[in-house]
């Protein structure tokens, strides 16, 4: 007992160590910083909507990121916008994950006509043009709440990962260990939840991260054209007001750069996380850059050695040639 | 103890190639009987329908026609009667690298069937799983139970797979090429384990293989299959020593005999090793 107990944590640490790649550490660090900023900063900043007669001015001791045209503090707006954008992103990612798991895994495992119907539905949703649909629904509804926008974003973004999950499920359900679980007498719901789902976790988490990125970008796009959530600050709505306030022509970089940078950094961080998840799913991808480098180095080394040999000793080469002639002559003689 | 009887078992797959359909008769009207304490070997090349028979018996596939009866009762297709059937009939898969879930510990693979078949409660499942590991010679069991499948060798995994099949305390065991994916050096160990467990439990064993030599060694009766048909059957020694069907003869000739290598013969002669008669006869034409 004591032996196994002491072994388990070290094995866990070893597995963690293998999963920790530089890209994961950097990506997780960036995302964590932004999430903490969105969680904590709103408690410490001033009212983001408070108008000030001072008007627009650049960063100063009082307003660290300057103010907008109506004198609102940009830092305060950024703090609340971060919280709003992340909230939309997380809600959408969970909804999309649920939808894709439901249609992908259930259809893939149960097969038959249910799979046909689910696949057809998934394919139809997949070819729906996302942004135009969002615009149509967004402009049709008058009072756009956060949940409504989240649902619109979710129903336009789950289909791709549902297809991935379906094909993965199709491959896993025919593996011997699933057949063995059937023979052991496991019920279908337990086979899906206990035998299949854990093996889909890497694919699902990569889908989750991908949905998070698309949701935040999609929401920013909607808000930027003025069809975003009413009454909630997001990065997109900040950009929308900056555009309306002619921040670009006025050179007020402190107004539009922070939200834009936040979107870019979060997208980059999440992508880095996704790359390392890919590395966990397919270890060959993780080693690919390293191996490419090794192949190149080996090639260079071989070239170098060849060059050295060619330069260094011309003598032995000649001798080789002469010795090469002898057997020929012998053959002729024979 | 129970007897499993297979009668006129047929499985036909409908294949589709574009708009054209064709039939593949994987198993054609096969009969045999598995009785306690006896081993029946099913021998044949790849694609001869051996594994399809295993899947049909394990209820992973439904037969097109024919019947499988356990103690005279037809097998259950679903619900409680299927569960009762699974209590009695278990299977060991060919590939130990595919038959254990990479996400779960060895303990999970043994505790689940123990609990599903009412052989253990939540409290004593671990204890019973440890006992199972010891029965398949994975000792010390404590060192194995918490490991993941990828930390075990092929032979160790196949032992776990055998332990899992034994967990419900079945009376019929189907072993689908249990050693074909293992290193030659550990095959005999796994086969001897199966033979010992069969003796101890008085199991009815269906041993599926493409290797006539082990089939002769471990089984009482051999069925030779060729493209879905049983082309020859009988007591092991009869089939091996006086094969009747053309295909069985081909199978026997196809097995490599290292001693028949001319280089070996020359070396044996040089060292003055006495030559077995049938090899001496081989040597003569040279």
Automatic annotation (TrEMBL), chain B:
Q: Which SUPFAM superfamilies match?
A: P-loop containing nucleoside triphosphate hydrolases
GO MF terms listed in the record are: ATP binding; ATP hydrolysis activity
- Any one GO biological process: transmembrane transport
Q: Which InterPro entries match?
A: AAA+_ATPase (IPR003593), ABC_transp_ATP-bind (IPR050319), ABC_transporter-like_ATP-bd (IPR003439), ABC_transporter-like_CS (IPR017871), P-loop_NTPase (IPR027417)
Q: Could you list this entry's UniProt keywords, alphabetically sorted.
A: ATP-binding, Nucleotide-binding, Transport
Task: Quote any Pfam family the record assigns.
Answer: ABC_tran
Which positions fall inside the ABC transporter domain? 4-252
This chain's protein is named: Dipeptide/oligopeptide/nickel ABC transporter ATP-binding protein
What is the species of this protein? Brachybacterium alimentarium
